[in-house]
Amino acid sequence: MQWIGIVALMIGLIAPSVALAQDSSPESGGGVLIGAFDVGPGGCPECPNPLQAGAGFTWYEKYFSKLMLYTPDFSEIQGELAESWELNEDATQYTIHLRDGVLWHDGEPFTAADVKFTIETAAHPDSASYIGAKFVGVTSIETPDDLTVILNLDEGNVTLLDAFTFLVMLPEHALADISPADLTTSSWWLDNPIGTGPFKWKAYEPGQYIELEAFEDYWRGRPQLDGIINRFFPEAGSSVIALRSGDIQFTYMTLDEALGLEGEEGLSVIAGPSQVLNYLGFDLTDPRFTDQRVRQAFMYAIDRPTIVEQLYGGQATMANCGFILPQFVPDGLNDYAQDVEMASQLLSDAGFDASQPVEILTYYGDQLSQDVLVTIQQFMADAGVNVEIRVVDVPTYNQITPDPEQWDITFAGAANGPDPDVLSSHFESIESNPSVLNRSNIKDDQLDALFADGRSTVDTDARAEVYQQICQIMNDQVYWAPLWVATRFGGASDQIENFVWVPAPGGGRYYDQAELWSLAA
């Protein structure tokens, strides 16, 4: 077994590794790659609608496409379906030039009308889109010709390029007759969805797998592989067993699983920072958590350095607000060094009712996360708080969290970069439950104003100062209890050639060159 290490810098942060690029023009080619693309926190198993999904893009991007993607080191945004773009001086107008000759899987041309349709569908509140609120400020969309899209905004917004790396393009000709509300539950996503990616839909076996086949008319050229299969593994650790046996060629892995692969011939471990902030999110509609002192008490009670060193083996970076990129983190933040006495005093001063247990809900079902939560449970018990733990799968978690009556605190993850505005979806009051992502129901006028300023500020240094102010408020108010950004791991067979995988937020948003992936003979 070999370890593929960290190789690049990302805007001041060490970037995830880029894996297994052995040969830029393989001679072998062909074959069907089988992977567990939706195992782990970057996946969204059997979540068919990418508009609603916050993860799973490693898989979606095999058959859907976006206008733009990051490079694998996340240092810059490059064109995908967009060939180029320009912003005016105050970022109130975007002009996007599309690639000529791109086809949908049914042979229809991809045009500006599809871009307009996709943005308007995502921005419609009935679509329940993960990313739709980012486009609410778009006042009009012009399509002067089939390859040009002009977005007009009510105020400056420099973050739409980042937002486009989340938004998969949809075919107007196939979906125009389905309302945004009906699209959320439409069978289209699993019957025969049409994309523009390197592979197209072939088969779906519920609970078992999805199979794609090479798209002969892909704009970059026919993929090297004949197909890709995404197998589902609901049982923890079962995908690693399949990798070891040769039944699959790729899977996400936990730290323990990565260490357990040491000495395995023909397998490689890919490691890099997740860019995902792990946090405890409080239900702020619950009277127990409305007092700032209670939330701060959780931070003081938990010995985060010990968890990072002993459970994560040092493979995590602590966070004291929602950001860890240094340009967005001001000096002088409270690092909430463990102080159980302080935690107990804050709870007492706030009149916290310790007789009622507090439940932490999570979708992290791996053993490491369970060990982390049990340790947090013990730390909170030392401060007088009785914590219970509930673990559910991702679809169940997504059903529970829109209803604050069904949960107390979440242990979850959120994208931490590379653009800091990505967290606005979780903190702005306009994004509050139940329709979008502010599950904690945070309502802070100062945060709302600052996030708006951050989007409209074009100057890089001035923009960084805005997010430093946001970071300070997050640190003081502890609407979330920020914990750490951990290293994540993937395992891949050395049989794969030209394979690129990055442990990225949402499991995607970067160009992974899937059309060049191949299997050695």
Shape: globular
Low-pLDDT residue intervals, each spanning 5 or more residues: 5-28
**CATH fold-level name of the domain at 274-486:** Dipeptide-binding Protein, domain 3
The strand count comes to 22
Mean pLDDT: 91
Task: Provide the CATH top-level class of the domain at 274-486.
Answer: Alpha Beta
Distance between the termini: 20 Å
> How can the largest sheet be summarized?
12 strands, mixed
At the fourth level of CATH, the homologous superfamily of the domain at 274-486 is Dipeptide-binding Protein, Domain 3
Helix content: 25-40%
Strand percent estimate: 15-25%
Radius of gyration: 23 Å
Task: Give the count of helical stretches.
Answer: 16
Structural classification? alpha+beta
CATH architect. name of the domain at 274-486 = Roll
Would you give an account of this structure?
The protein has helices at residues 57-60, 112-123, 160-164, 172-175, 180-183, 188-191, 238-245, 255-260, 292-301, 304-311, 340-349, 367-382, 394-400, 424-427, 445-456, 460-477, and strands at residues 2-4, 9-10, 13-14, 32-36, 68-70, 77-79, 82-87, 93-98, 138-145, 148-153, 199-205, 209-214, 227-231, 250-253, 267-282, 316-318, 358-362, 387-391, 409-415, 480-493, 496-497, 518-519. The two termini are 20 Å apart. It has a domain at 274-486: Dipeptide-binding Protein, domain 3 (Roll), CATH 3.10.105. The protein is 25% helix and 23% strand. It contains 16 helices and 22 strands. Helix 9 runs antiparallel to helix 11 and helix 15 runs antiparallel to helix 16. A hairpin with a 2-residue loop joins strand 2 (9-10) and strand 3. The strands form five sheets. Strands 1, 4, 11, 12, 13, 14, 15, 16, 17, 18, 19 and 20 form a twelve-stranded mixed beta sheet that branches. It has a four-stranded antiparallel beta sheet with strand order 7-8-10-9, with helices on one face. The chain is globular.
